[in-house]
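Final report, closing paragraph on structural work. Over the funding period we assembled a curated collection of sequence-structure pairs, and we close with a single example.
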Amino acid sequence: MQVKKEVATIKAEAIFDETHQYRYSLKRIWDENKPKVTFIL
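Its predicted structure, as stored:
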């Protein structure tokens, strides 16, 4: 039996206002080769 181990590096970025009370943007990238998706809450 073969065991395959994958290690993922997730890139993350957050943009806050100067008081750090409000977040304007949050970005996470799991795989650069896959299409992007956007969620608006």
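The chain has one domain: 1-41. The longest strand covers residues 23-29. We thank the funder for supporting this effort.
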